[in-house]
Amino acid sequence: MSAFIFLQGAPGGGNNLISLLFPFLIIVVFYFFLIRPQIKRQKDQQKFVDSLKEGMEVVTNAGIIGRITKIDGNIVRLMIDEKTYMRVVKQSITGEYKP
């Protein structure tokens, strides 16, 4: 009987504080390690897309490399090869091509 009482532990409120603090700590860790870097990447990508101009060599998210020949609103025309053009949406351009 005394062993059972010993295993129950002492009554106290310390465990309640930890149980309330643990979910808050998980949210903070998710924010700093997952959400905040993703927001930064999205802002950098949007800044890059806004700075696109004719003559830049870029890569699309499908891996297609081309030179921008015309920007018409949200549509970009890429020259893939001589006399070969492709129209893509601005958001599909992921970066500048640097050989």
Describe this structure in words.
- The structure is a single chain.
- The chain is an alpha+beta fold.
- It has a single domain (13-96), classed as SH3 type barrels.
- 44% of the residues lie in helices and 29% in strands.
- The protein has a 5-stranded antiparallel sheet, covered by helices on one side.
- A hairpin with a 4-residue loop joins strand 1 (57-60) and strand 2 (65-72).
- It is rod-shaped.
- 5% of the residues are buried.
CATH architecture annotation: Roll
β-strand amount: 25-35%
Number of strands: 5
CATH class: Mainly Beta
What is the mean pLDDT? 87
| Count of discrete alpha- or pi-helical segments spanning 4 or more residues | 2
- Structurally, the number of domains stands at 1
- Please mark out the parts with pLDDT under 50 across 5 or more consecutive residues, or reply none: none
| First-last Cα distance | 77 Å
- Computed Rg: 27 Å
Strand order of the largest sheet: 4-3-2-1-5
SSE succession: HHEEEEE
Largest sheet: 5 strands, antiparallel
- What is the share of helical residues? 40-55%
CATH topology: SH3 type barrels
Which outline best applies? Answer: rod-shaped
Structural class: alpha+beta
